[in-house]
Amino acid sequence: MKEQIHEQFKKYFNAEGEFYASAGRINLIGEHTDYNGGFVFPGAIDKCIMAEIRKNGTGKVRAYALDVKGGDYVEFGLKEDEGPKQSWARYIFGVCREIQKRGGVISGFDTAFSGNVPLGAGMSSSAALESTFAFALNEMFSLGIDKFELAKIGQATEHNYCGVNCGIMDQFASIFGKKDCLIRLDCRSLEYKYFPFHPNGYRLVLVDTVVKHELASSAYNDRRHSCEHVVDVIRKSGHSGVEFLRDCDLQMLEGVRPELSGEDYDCAKYVIEEIQRVLDVCEALEKDDYETVGKKMYETHWGMSKLYKVSCKELDFLVKLAEKCGVTGSRVMGGGFGGCTINLVKDGLYDKFVSEAHSKYEIGFGHAPKIYDVVISDGAHRI
Ligand code: GLA
Fold first, then answer.
1. Where in the chain is the domain with CATH 3.30.230.10?
2. Superfamily of segment(s) 202-373
3. For ligand 1, atom 2, which residue shows the shortest CA distance?
4. pLDDT in tens, the chain (383 residues)
5. CB atoms closer than 10 angstroms to residue 363
6. May I ask the CATH architecture of the domain 2-196?
7. Global pTM?
8. Candidates 34, 174, 217, 223: which one to mutate for ligand 1, based on the most atoms within 8 Å of Cβ?
9. Domain ranges in the chain with CATH number 3.30.70.890
10. Residue 247 and residue 37 in contact, taking contact as beta carbons nearer than 8 Å
């Protein structure tokens, strides 16, 4: 990847730059909990976005994306308000603007980038892109921004320039990722802990439905809105200290049930249960109890499917198939509405599961799924 990037960089800018990369992520458990102040349990993976960058001494950013069909080139000024239209370029533009909003002084730069984080598969290619540039600009312009703030710059880019009111998980994992470790993040206090992840006798495999639902970002924002509404109702019912669903329990939720729509109640129930599942999984992992980890993964899936309603028939099909095959744990990963399932599979079952997932899914949906093995790796770094 590095050579291809450099080839284009040289062609466009006739110069040498510095290389930076930041990773995509998996999440073992804890979905839609981040913006509810709960826990998540992600790790960075061996798939990344990589960019070559150099300062160009102007007030302009000149960027070349290798992965857009036929390549794509964009220029924008650092003082522009509107920014570019191309979605990939808006991530870079947003990162620059968010750095500037925080008082960071940057000038123009040239860049070419590429990546191998599958797009729209729930592995956070957009967070990897934001984190690559946030990390690189911070180093190149000696801005002294701390790592959490870099993650927040990526998150704010999604909110303010890309229309997704996401939580902090993806950018956090992309920046803080560490080889062979999952990270439990408390999204309320921002405390985090690395958990060595060596599932002896098991493998993690992602099965990609290759389904992308167009309305995913508006549906995501709707779910977030439902959660915030429930918090509001609970707070007004006499629990004034409640800030997030993290601060609520099922009893408090039952107390306001008559005031909630069925959908809002279901969403909140899922989130409250999911926050607890993350803690249960961490405890089980410390005892090498993978059976419990897997059981919780299935619970998450059916919670996301039936209560939070962010699954789809292709994902449900793959999870049922995994269950039938005897896979230890399986669930939709990331925001949902398509993308991948994450599967915890015993070594001995791996070949059988992958081949069945492949053939049966193809029969069911007319196209093959994609299979990705992932290795837990380091987050943002200079190469
Ligand atoms: C997307 C968002 C994250 C998180 C997940 C669901 O990946 O970017 O912040 O909310 O969905 O867990």
1. 2-196
2. GHMP kinase, C-terminal domain (3.30.70.890)
3. 166
4. 999 999 999 999 999 999 999 999 999 999 999 999 999 999 999 999 999 999 999 999 999 999 998 889 999 999 998 999 999 999 999 999 999 999 999 999 999 999 999 988 889 999 999 999 999 999 999 999 999 999 999 999 999 999 999 999 999 999 999 999 999 999 999 999 999 999 999 999 999 999 987 667 889 999 999 999 999 999 999 999 999 999 999 999 999 999 999 999 999 999 999 999 999 999 999 999 999 999 999 999 999 999 999 999 999 999 999 999 999 999 999 999 999 999 999 999 999 999 999 999 999 999 999 999 999 999 999 99
5. 8
6. 2-Layer Sandwich (3.30)
7. 0.96
8. 34
9. 202-373
10. yes
- Nearest protein Cα to ligand 1, atom 9: 167
What residues contact 180, with CB distance under 8 A and at least 6 apart? Answer: 196, 197, 198, 376
Within 6 Å (CB) of ligand 1, which residues are found?
31-32, 34-35, 124, 166-167, 169-170, 334-335
